[in-house]
């Protein structure tokens, strides 16, 4: 339909005034785009003619055309037109200048020459006049701005004088504050402790880093010597004579003489021109909670140089297995050492030290929080120990299963700690490297877990103000724009008091099939809803308000669900019903955000080739590459060796007719609740488990059971999420360092379902046969059963013990003996006598030489679970099953790794309740901004594969630098 009205929005003519064809100059005057069917009324056309006539005269007379009145600019208008009008504009072309009569062409050339000779000087003159005019106006504005600034300064001075007169501050008072940093540490799900500490300064007695020089020994020098063994203290002595260049005759204070190698001698004082380096052989004063021998020196090796991280102390691995921090003044350098210092240490720590120095500065260590309980080896038994304190790389453990109280400082990387030992055992058995479909269970359940720490990274400055670890939107020539809702979309009616029913939304004609190219959160805005962000000035709070098609205001999810239940949910038209995941009440999420990229870099319009409900474009601005061809699938495929019964008869379904909103009555919800009920200490918030209005805010390790084809509930059921078609607008794009990645084109609210990971379900044996070809690429193990078994394994050991410190703990059933040899039993029998000796030394000030108890840094006993695993009842030849997306897959195969992930993985059961075959699905871990790459934590263990290093390029704040 043509536009039959005047092009001037401010036209005062009568509605039925005669209209004339609007020329281009007239459209420009009224700031509208030109179209052949545009029309203008007589008075408005006359006004336009008068204006251009005045401009023409000023131009002809050499006067500045800017020095006069200007036409009133019209406001920007979104024009709606049907297909006929669009075709009219597209079909309009300028008159052709081809095939003109030669005489006409010659005349045209002559006219062009005349115009150039006569008008061009006027153009140049006009350009100079306009430039001068604009310069003068700019000078006026600058002068006015300076005058305003002067007035503002005078006002500020007056206010300051008035303020000082009112309060009369003492000008001599000064306040000094120490520089501080705040460290926030989450101890558990419910407690958050904020500690404040002053940054430590560099000690005066600590020398600078440099080359460590050992001076030559001579007769008469005072030294420390190893009088008995590496397990006992070194005693002061004097060099009586030199037997050779490396051996000396030593006279101890008690008159005993002994010939010792210079590797068994240490300098008497701590004077040094440089710090002791990593691996240096030293003796140091030892102090323990159980045995306080503060004036005795024991031999060991420098395991950690002084850093800000450890308050400028050295960490020392003593030969007897103990670990401790010591200051420079309490350490003495051994006079000589072998080229390989591991050859000098006691065999008890030799292999451990060798591996430690090889891996340094990357060290696998257990991440602890206070009050956690961990199984720890003590006297060849696995016992429960409670975390009492943390000090850099050390943890103080109190053993709970001892009749005699025992507390010990231990290196957090010792494999006497069960997490380290279990990890080493699994690394020796499993040589495959694949993404696990769940993140580390221990980390998720607030248990002690292994984390690779790099000592050099601990010295990096921390940006406290910028502590947000969320990933930023990718640049790649893209920008975030705001989606414009078409003006012809339905708008809410003025509210009138009424009882809501399906008639409130019937008139907007919602149709799910028409929403394919819409952002999921803008769908309601296209069908009669509006969304506003309101600010409460008194409470300083912001909230989201939806206005429904019938004019009702709704500000929370419960009210919105009740409204949809009264309107759309009562409609039996299947897909033409709005669901709760179309609405979001977080003001930080913008439904209108849209990440747009230049179309010239779109290599494929839809990599799923319309198999997904939402198109997934492929973007590459770096080169001309496109992803390797795969067979895109929307359902998982089973290899011939995998037998899975997906007959609905073997599924239990619910009888709900209320969209399964009553979770206590829905049998599918109860299946989801059944697993967490077995672990009440882990799953404390039982009501918060599973979906909340079709969003998942916390991972459910024991799995989610959705409603299935046997259920009587409708498709709009609150327990149907992962089985629905793709709703998130995603894009596959080529990154600079990580290959292909996936980003979202719209904002994604926290807990929203993103997509699934699909592939061919294969046996573990089949996957391993192809491992040498693809190195585990695009493989993910279906390790749901292993994950649940990991929760069960040692569950009681990880439960926090009572707070009463004086409670007498007895031996627990969790203790596990490993049948030590006769030699080990002999050492165990000596333990009580050694404890007695140390108690006596602790309570007296005698100078008797004490003996260290043997406390291994590494241990050999195996941690076996007393629980019977479900996996033991399955076919051991097949092992766990694997999803292989190398050749057949979907968009989920392209997600990259991040050390600060923004999506997480959830196991979901839909078409089968066989625990070996869950659906692997991705959910948003936090609010995700449009244009941000979606990434999850592959949960690889750094250093788990020998001679294999895979660098991490996730770019997050907490990036570990290595993926493997």
Automatic annotation (TrEMBL):
<dbReference type="Pfam" id="PF00856">
    <property type="entry name" value="SET"/>
</dbReference>
<dbReference type="InterPro" id="IPR051516">
    <property type="entry name" value="SETDB_methyltransferase"/>
</dbReference>
<dbReference type="GO" id="GO:0046974">
    <property type="term" value="F:histone H3K9 methyltransferase activity"/>
</dbReference>
<keyword id="KW-0539">Nucleus</keyword>
<dbReference type="Pfam" id="PF18359">
    <property type="entry name" value="Tudor_5"/>
</dbReference>
<keyword id="KW-0175">Coiled coil</keyword>
<dbReference type="Pfam" id="PF05033">
    <property type="entry name" value="Pre-SET"/>
</dbReference>
<keyword id="KW-0489">Methyltransferase</keyword>
<feature type="domain" description="SET">
    <location>
        <begin position="728"/>
        <end position="939"/>
    </location>
</feature>
<keyword id="KW-0804">Transcription</keyword>
<dbReference type="GO" id="GO:0005634">
    <property type="term" value="C:nucleus"/>
</dbReference>
<dbReference type="Pfam" id="PF18358">
    <property type="entry name" value="Tudor_4"/>
</dbReference>
<keyword id="KW-0158">Chromosome</keyword>
<dbReference type="GO" id="GO:0032259">
    <property type="term" value="P:methylation"/>
</dbReference>
<dbReference type="InterPro" id="IPR046341">
    <property type="entry name" value="SET_dom_sf"/>
</dbReference>
<dbReference type="GO" id="GO:0008270">
    <property type="term" value="F:zinc ion binding"/>
</dbReference>
<dbReference type="GO" id="GO:0010629">
    <property type="term" value="P:negative regulation of gene expression"/>
</dbReference>
<keyword id="KW-0949">S-adenosyl-L-methionine</keyword>
<keyword id="KW-0808">Transferase</keyword>
<keyword id="KW-0805">Transcription regulation</keyword>
<dbReference type="InterPro" id="IPR041292">
    <property type="entry name" value="Tudor_4"/>
</dbReference>
<feature type="domain" description="Pre-SET">
    <location>
        <begin position="652"/>
        <end position="725"/>
    </location>
</feature>
<protein>
    <recommendedName>
        <fullName>Histone-lysine N-methyltransferase eggless</fullName>
    </recommendedName>
</protein>
<dbReference type="InterPro" id="IPR041291">
    <property type="entry name" value="TUDOR_5"/>
</dbReference>
<dbReference type="InterPro" id="IPR003616">
    <property type="entry name" value="Post-SET_dom"/>
</dbReference>
<dbReference type="GO" id="GO:0070828">
    <property type="term" value="P:heterochromatin organization"/>
</dbReference>
<feature type="domain" description="Post-SET">
    <location>
        <begin position="948"/>
        <end position="964"/>
    </location>
</feature>
<dbReference type="InterPro" id="IPR007728">
    <property type="entry name" value="Pre-SET_dom"/>
</dbReference>
<dbReference type="GO" id="GO:0005694">
    <property type="term" value="C:chromosome"/>
</dbReference>
<dbReference type="InterPro" id="IPR001214">
    <property type="entry name" value="SET_dom"/>
</dbReference>
